[in-house]
Each structure stands twice: as structure tokens, then as C-alpha cells.
Amino acid sequence: MTNTVRASDSTSGCLPASADAPQVKAALRLLTDDGQPLAVFAPVGACVSGGAYLDPRRDTGEVVLAYCGEDGKTTNKHERDERELTTREYAGLFRAAGWSVNEYRENDQAGTERLARLILTPPPTPWPVDAVAMYVPDSSEDYRDVVIIQSLPEGATVEALSARKRKIIRVPLDKLQPLPEVEPLRGEPTDWWRVLNKEGQFIVRVHAETFDGAVAAAAPLPAARQALKRDGGLYYRRLTSWQLSDADQ
């Protein structure tokens, strides 16, 4: 009897625990765009259909790529030759895409030395995963956004978590800039807060011990309510003793 696995229960190209690794996602896209078959795994981890298999090295950012054959299936010399040729195709594909490729060789069951797997390192990027950047859209859009990089580059774009939209968006690499340098803190933190609109313009100043307290203190003030209604949000900045005048204190 032939075992079958529902598509909804299987994973392709990697085991489920590896699917979130950025280097796996980037490598999978390159393989699928090139039309390379991916190994299919049952929920228990058994390989039920042969193809490319990716295993990430999370500490280094590398990923190991090999051809994974169906579990329990024996191979002859012709099939082993074909698998080695396929692995060489993988190497050429990733080298052409700018990845660093290290080859690992070992003896097969007949004692013949073969190219067995590849250790891949993604191309260098100024925006690694978890880096924080400023997203500066086209001049036709009048806003800036702070984003956290979520993926390796795919072509000329990258996935990022938008602070403004509070969701994952795809942004062009050439629209990312380093965050502005923050001036060193001068003076001691106080319980005074400056309330700004989304354009960074001063609205009111409120007194509160915490951020939540500052939001509550600003809520009933007409100027803050008007700005909140118009812009959909406000910014709160705790002031230092150096920033306050005698009148403020």
C-alpha cells in the first residue's frame, strides 16, 4: 500500500522547525524561482519525495543544502551520479546569485568520493535581520517610518516590520536609511512630557510619572484631542531637567 501525505500536513525544502530561518526563506525562493524540486517531508519528519533540503545554522547565518532522497529507498550508481550533478547545479545557482558556497565531499556507499552537500552564506547586506532602519518613501509620500528588518534581501526589496502600520511590509532597499543619531541625554529625567503631533510639532506639555500617565493627562486637553483626531496618533517625549525652564518646573 502506498503511503500518502496531505499537502496541508507536509513541508517542502526544510523541516517545520527551520521554516522561520531567514537564510532558509531566501534560499527556498532562489531554488523555486529556478524550478528546482524541493524535498517533501511528512509531519513526522520522514522524506516522502526527493529534492533540495535546507538545514540552517542559526548561530552563523549559514544554511546547509543537500539533495534529500526518499527515506528507505536504495539508489544505484546512475541515481547517485544524477544527485551529485544536481548538487553541482545548486552550487552554480547560488554562486551566480552572490552567495558564498563551500563544498563538502564524502564517500558514498560504494566508496566513491562525491560532492555531498553545500554550506551556503547569503550575500552581505547593510540591513541584516533585526536591524532597525528609517524607511523613507518617495517624495510623493509625506511620512517616514521606523522599520525592523525581517528577511534577507529578495531582489531589491526586503520584508520589514513597520512601526507606523504595525505589520510586515515589503520595502525597497534603496529607500532605507540609518536612523538619525540621538543626542546624548543631558540632565536628569523628569516627570514632564512634551506631546507632539505626527509631524513632530509641539502640542502641549503634561506632568506624569509614566508614559501611560502622560497619555491620560493629555487626553482631556483640547489641543491634544484635536491633534489626535486629525492625525490618528501622538508622540510623547519625556523631558530632562536640562530641557526645562524654571517656569516649567
Notable features of this structure?
single chain, 249 residues, five-stranded antiparallel β-sheet, four-stranded antiparallel β-sheet, elongated
Give a verbal description of the structure.
The structure is a single chain. The chain is of the alpha+beta class and 249 residues long. The protein contains 4 helices and 15 strands. It has helices at residues 22-33, 77-96, 211-218, 222-231, and strands spanning 11-12, 40-41, 47-49, 51-57, 62-68, 100-107, 113-121, 132-135, 145-149, 157-162, 167-172, 176-177, 189-196, 202-207, 235-240. The strands form 4 sheets. It has a 5-stranded antiparallel sheet, with no helix packed on it. It has a 4-stranded antiparallel sheet with strand order 4-5-7-6, covered by helices on one side. Strands 1-2-3 form a 3-stranded antiparallel sheet, with no helix packed on it. A hairpin with a 5-residue loop joins strand 13 and strand 14 (202-207). Mean pLDDT is 86; it is low at 1-7.
Write the layout of secondary structure elements.
Blueprint: E1 11-12, H1 22-33, E2 40-41, E3 47-49, E4 51-57, E5 62-68, H2 77-96, E6 100-107, E7 113-121, E8 132-135, E9 145-149, E10 157-162, E11 167-172, E12 176-177, E13 189-196, E14 202-207, H3 211-218, H4 222-231, E15 235-240
Antiparallel strand pairs: 1-2, 2-3, 4-5, 5-7, 6-7, 8-9, 8-12, 9-10, 10-11, 13-14, 13-15
